[in-house]
Write a structure and sequence with these properties.
The protein is α/β, with parallel strands linked by helices. The chain is built from 14 helices and 15 strands. The chain is globular, with a radius of gyration of 23 Å.
């Protein structure tokens, strides 16, 4: 299978790498995607679900409507010099593509373009859609899009993610809520008139202590993380009148996540009461757990075998080894995801190779991985499945400088194009065998068992960025 305009697509991914942008501010990245898609004959709607940078590109008419999801946002603190196998940021606080989203969005475009060629050859009914989804790292762009019905006319959704392995993604992910807790107090001279002050920083610290005590009484699958984003200043002789902490709360399902979040809110209220400060809660983002679809995973597994893995040159393997050697083998072996059948073979391959050079056998699992993605919200409204391909050496995983550094390499490009081929081959199977679409929907309906999708983001909240 050939991907049309492969060189242009790789150049587009590199251009997005060069201009890393945060969620809902991916202005240059989104514009570059939209310009490329319009140039190649797609109809494009922008500002979908009021996200600003989100888009929907389409070609064709009628069913099946097969959609490909893309992303393009970057991460703070992930700035790194390209191709450098040691930590070397141009700006230590700057942004970088430490999760491969510069390729994720372009890979979706590549798959959509390849599938369009199939629709042209077929000459019958069928529509391809490509969604540019902003704010995956922070913002939950797909949750807003799912809440607003953007995906409702699709029959199947396929997506992918750069990884250290070639494999079908399986299992679930955690539901997640992020919120800011701002405490407002009263400043005073810390020595001369401490009795007149009400410390917002005290409230933050008490809240953090309370949540840390709560950890003993959470489910094993729960996770709570926080960052103090405003300490109230740098002068210890001033009672801090303003302070803020940002919390990320995760659990296995939306109802469990909401209950855990409510417990955290009550702790914050208690901290405000103890310090005689005022509390302001700013709901930031919320995303749902993933609904697996084994029927679609089987289609992808067959596509992997049909397409076949890329080959790597001696130079590419030497390049990958530099990055593999920057991370301990023990840590590499401990980062193997659930749902892999041939774990022993993979462990040996990690020890003896620089990069994944075969399709890792996957077994279906409902296990909840310790992480979150707003792809979960899409999976609650349309049967959805995810492809993983190796775009990086064995070693450090996502959200690392190693991933940023390798983001424009030949290995990264091969992984992106490979993902596009696998998704396009999967779409071809679904087009030619509509019974596979029915199987996916039968499983989807059985899993939901009448339960309706309920977005974790309150209706009154629109896409935003909290400063």
């Amino acid at each position: 299978m050939q991907i049309p305009y492969e060189e242009e697509l790789c150049a587009l991914a590199d251009a997005v790498w060069e201009t890393p942008e945060p969620g809902f501010r991916e202005y240059k990245s989104s514009a570059a995607h939209v310009e490329f898609l319009k140039k190649h004959g797609f109809e494009v709607k922008t500002d979908v679900a009021k996200t600003g940078t989100g888009y929907e590109a389409s070609w064709g008419s009628g069913h099946p409507v097969i959609a490909f999801l893309g992303e393009f946002d970057a991460l703070y603190g992930m700035n790194q010099k390209a191709d450098c196998p040691s930590y070397h940021p141009e700006d230590p606080d700057g942004m970088g593509q430490g999760c491969g989203h510069h390729m994720l969005g372009v890979g979706a475009i590549a798959a959509g373009m390849a599938y369009r060629e199939m629709l042209k050859e077929n000459g019958g009914s069928g529509t391809v859609k490509i969604f540019g989804c902003p704010g995956e790292e922070s913002g939950s762009g797909k949750a807003y899009m799912a809440r607003d019905g953007v995906f409702d006319d699709c029959d199947i959704v396929l997506t992918w993610h750069p990884a250290n392995f070639h494999m079908v993604c399986t299992g679930s992910s955690q539901s997640c809520i992020q919120a800011c807790f701002r405490f407002h107090g009263v400043s005073s001279h810390a020595a001369g008139a401490p009795h007149l002050g009400r410390s917002a920083l005290d409230a933050v610290e008490l809240m953090d202590v309370g949540v840390n005590y709560m950890r003993e009484h959470m489910e094993d699958s729960d996770r709570v993380h926080y960052a103090i984003t405003n300490t109230g200043g740098k002068s210890p002789n001033v009672v801090q009148a303003e302070a803020e902490v940002r919390y990320l709360i995760r659990s296995a399902t939306n109802p469990k996540c909401k209950k855990l979040y409510e417990r955290v809110v009550r702790i914050a209220q208690g901290a405000a009461l103890m310090t005689d400060t005022k509390l302001e809660v700013l709901f930031d983002e919320g995303l749902s757990n993933t609904v697996p679809n084994f029927a679609l995973e089987d289609v992808i597994a067959k596509a992997f075998q049909t397409v076949g893995v890329p080959t790597y040159t001696a130079e590419e393997r030497a390049y990958a080894k530099q990055f593999k050697d920057s991370f301990s083998v023990e840590d590499q072996l401990s980062d193997i995801p659930f749902g892999i059948a041939d774990i022993m073979k993979l462990r040996e391959n990690i020890k003896n190779s620089e990069i994944c050079d075969y399709v890792v056998e996957t077994i279906h699992t409902d296990h909840c991985e310790m992480g979150s993605t707003d792809v979960g919200d899409v999976s609650w409204v349309i049967p959805t499945a995810t492809v993983n391909t190796a775009c990086y050496s064995y070693g450090a995983g996502a959200h690392s400088w190693q991933w940023t550094a390798q983001g424009k390499s030949a290995i990264a490009h091969k992984g992106m194009i490979f993902a596009a081929k696998v998704m396009a081959e999967s779409a071809k199977t679904l087009l030619e065998h509509p019974e596979e679409i029915k199987k996916a929907w039968d499983e989807f309906d059985k899993r939901l068992d009448g339960e309706k999708y309920e977005c974790l983001i309150p209706k009154e909240i629109e896409p935003h960025v909290i400063e």
